[in-house]
Amino acid sequence: MSRFPVLQRRREDSDWETVGYVHAPDREMALGFALHSFFRHGEGVNCAIDDGGEIVTVTDPRDVVAHTDKSYRVSAGYPLGPKRRKAEQRIAELGVRVEGVRPGDDV
């Protein structure tokens, strides 16, 4: 196992900076480890390792960009309006009235 410094560029016009190290048997595996360890959240625009003074970059820059689908973090992916209206309609059909103190009500 060799130790490879992991380099990144935060922007296209910035210089390489060391962000950490990975241990791997070869450079291809080191690049894979570097991508998964340091670039999961889209921290930079380019990733590389330093292999004995030779900078080896990722061949496809799209690998650096996070591809994880995080639509669950956006409320637009889970519309609450129709669900609330359906619940209100169901409550009205049952003739139930919800009583009690609501948050923000002065008691």
Structure, described:
With 107 residues, the protein is of the alpha+beta class. Helix content is 24%, strand content 24%. It is built from two helices and four strands, in the order E-E-H-E-E-H. A four-stranded antiparallel β-sheet has the order 2-1-3-4, covered by helices on one side. It is rod-shaped. The model has no long low-confidence stretch (mean pLDDT 84).
Mean pLDDT: 84
- Poorly predicted segments: none
The side-by-side strand order for the widest beta sheet comes to 2-1-3-4
Structural class: alpha+beta
Helix content class: 10-25%
What sequence of helices (H) and strands (E) makes up the elements?
EEHEEH
* Radius of gyration from the alpha-carbon trace, in angstroms: 25 Å
| Helical run tally | 2
| SS strand fraction | 15-25%
Distance between the termini: 67 Å
The shape is rod-shaped
- Sheet with most strands: 4 strands, antiparallel
What is the strand tally?
4
Key phrases:
107 residues, alpha+beta, four-stranded antiparallel sheet, 2 helices, 4 strands, 24% strand, rod-shaped
